Amino acid sequence: MTDRNLQRPSRDGAPRRPGARALTRRVPLAFASAAAAVSLVAVASPATASVTAKAPTGSTLVVADVAPFTGTDAALGPTYLVSCDGATNAINLAGGVLGHELACKGVDTRGDPADAVPAVRQMYASTSNLKLVIGLTSDEAASVVPIINANKTVMFGMTGQSEFDHTHFPYFYRLVPPDLAESYAMVAIAKYDYHYKKVALAFGNDIGSQTFVNPAIQSIKKAGLKLVDNETLDLSATTFRTEAAKIVAAHPDVIFTEALGPTEAAFLTELKQQNGGKMIPVIGTSATISPDWFKSVAAAVGASTLASNFAADNLVVETTGPAYTGFKKAILAEKGKVGNTGNFDTYLSAPGAVHLYDGINLAALAMVASKSTNPSVFRTWIEKIGNGVPGAVVVHTFAQGVAALKAGKSIRYEGPGGPTSFDSYHDSTGIFQVDKYTSSGSVVVAQNIPSTQIRAVS
Predict the structure, then answer these.
(1) What backbone torsions phi and psi does residue 13 show, to the nearest 5 degrees?
(2) Is residue 305 part of a domain?
(3) What is the per-residue pLDDT for 316?
(4) Is the pLDDT of residue 6 over 50?
(5) How far is CA 208 from CA 75, 162, 172, in A?
(6) Using CA atoms, how far apart are residues 314 and 419, in angstroms rounded to an integer?
(7) In the structure, what pLDDT confidence band is assigned to residue 53 with cuts at 50, 70 and 90?
(8) In 10 A of CB 423, how many CB atoms?
(9) Which residues does 387 contact at the CB level (< 8 Å), separation at least 6?
(10) Host domain of residue 259
């Protein structure tokens, strides 16, 4: 699965040195970046003794966001960078990792394997103290994960490509489901929640979007639904009259979709016009849970119209409690620093923001627990801290985890993405839910999708 957001990075601010209130220091980007982070107060542990955070004094440890910042998928990199800034800023304010502060660096893959490979090689040639990579969408993951793994760098990927379900890369971790599981969830929503019978597909021609198509076709058939049309949307095109006409002529009850950049708004505008001014209901992937996706499409078809005709699958995420409180504070500290993004609160449900935040915290706590910033050493602690060991204390923030570790306790980290359960391929996925939008662009959870329904259509 790839998480989409339609903002572009702004110029980077001047580096800051940590002081009494440490700030995230942004390393100059290899290609592009979002704006620099701002400070926020570290969350104190309600269950353990508080820690007096000291400003990090050691060398800076780099977290690289390897994802598209330009091209048709330019949304992805900045979305992940918001999460990176929020997470690393909170970690730095809690004293950093073993005396080191963390900094985020954007590496632009342009959503193309041909550009991604040299970008990653240049990242290694030009970056000191690179300890963690995040991002890795379906556009470039297959081409660059082997390179990153060979360089023995821990990575948390957003790719949903099924090849990672059964191929073991020791340094690769994933907190999101494979795209085929999302396809099953979309079919379950159509069949059980809305009782639709006829389905049309409209997915972009990029790698990340096309990975949904074949699993969706197979699942639609197994569920006893009818596939009436399957259109591939060229992301470089400016009009979709032909594709819209074919779908309207097929009379679907619902359209499954994921298309990036301005494509979705243009396509749905023409679809609505050719359908007599009426919107055909759509079910989107979790990538459509994005402030800019809503902003763009709502401007094209009408906010209330979109809200009443839209649903998406998404992994269940926390919306209350201590994990959510710390996450919300960290993410909202970035508001106003990343450009005009529509309803910024949508980041609190966006998969990339939630699960990469958790990945960064898991890696940072693994460094502390292993007493090492060497990825070959701390990576083995990620599963221990994520899955937990008998007698482990549950912690919800980096600050809580450090306090418990200093008290000699074993810990299990449970962040806003919920508890993890890594398998032998370092995959950990949770329960799906149905998300909807209000007319203001806020995300509301309609209900969870029972696992029995997912299995029935898979």
Answers:
(1) -80, 170
(2) yes
(3) 86
(4) no
(5) 13, 11, 18
(6) 16
(7) low
(8) 12
(9) 412, 420, 421, 422
(10) 180-316+428-456
Count of structural domains within the chain: 1
* Cα angle 429-435-441, degrees, rounded to a multiple of 5: 130
**Residue the block writes with tokens 């977290």:** 63
Residue 211 lies in a domain: yes
Torsion angles phi and psi, residue 89, rounded to 5: -65, -45
pLDDT band at residue 142 under the 50/70/90 scheme: very high
Least confident residue range of 1-10, 145-154, 165-174, 351-360 = 1-10
Separation of alpha carbons 341 and 294, rounded Å: 10
More confident residue, 120 or 340: 120
Residues 6+ apart with CB under 8 A from 114: none
Residue type, 351: P
Convert the pLDDT of each residue in 298-347 to its tens digit.
999 999 999 999 999 998 888 899 999 999 999 999 988 876 667 888 88
Q: Is 383 contained in some domain?
A: no
Closest CA to 11 of 65, 102, 78: 78
The mean per-residue pLDDT over the stretch 91-95 comes to: 97
Q: Find the helix packing angle between 351-370 and 322-332, rounded to 10°.
A: 110
Query: Does 209 reside within a domain?
Result: yes
Provide the whole-model pTM.
0.80
Judge whether residue 241 has pLDDT over 50: yes
103 CB contacts (<8 Å, ≥6 apart)?
24, 25, 26, 27, 60, 61, 62, 63, 88
C-alpha 404/C-alpha 388 separation (Å) is: 13
Matching residue, tokens 């679907």: 252
Q: What is the CATH number of the domain that holds 196?
A: 3.40.50.2300
Q: How far is CA 205 from CA 313, 328, 347, 356, in A?
A: 21, 34, 25, 26
Distance CA 73, CA 60 (A): 29
Which residue intervals of 231-350 are DSSP H helices? 241-250, 263-274, 291-301, 303-308, 322-332
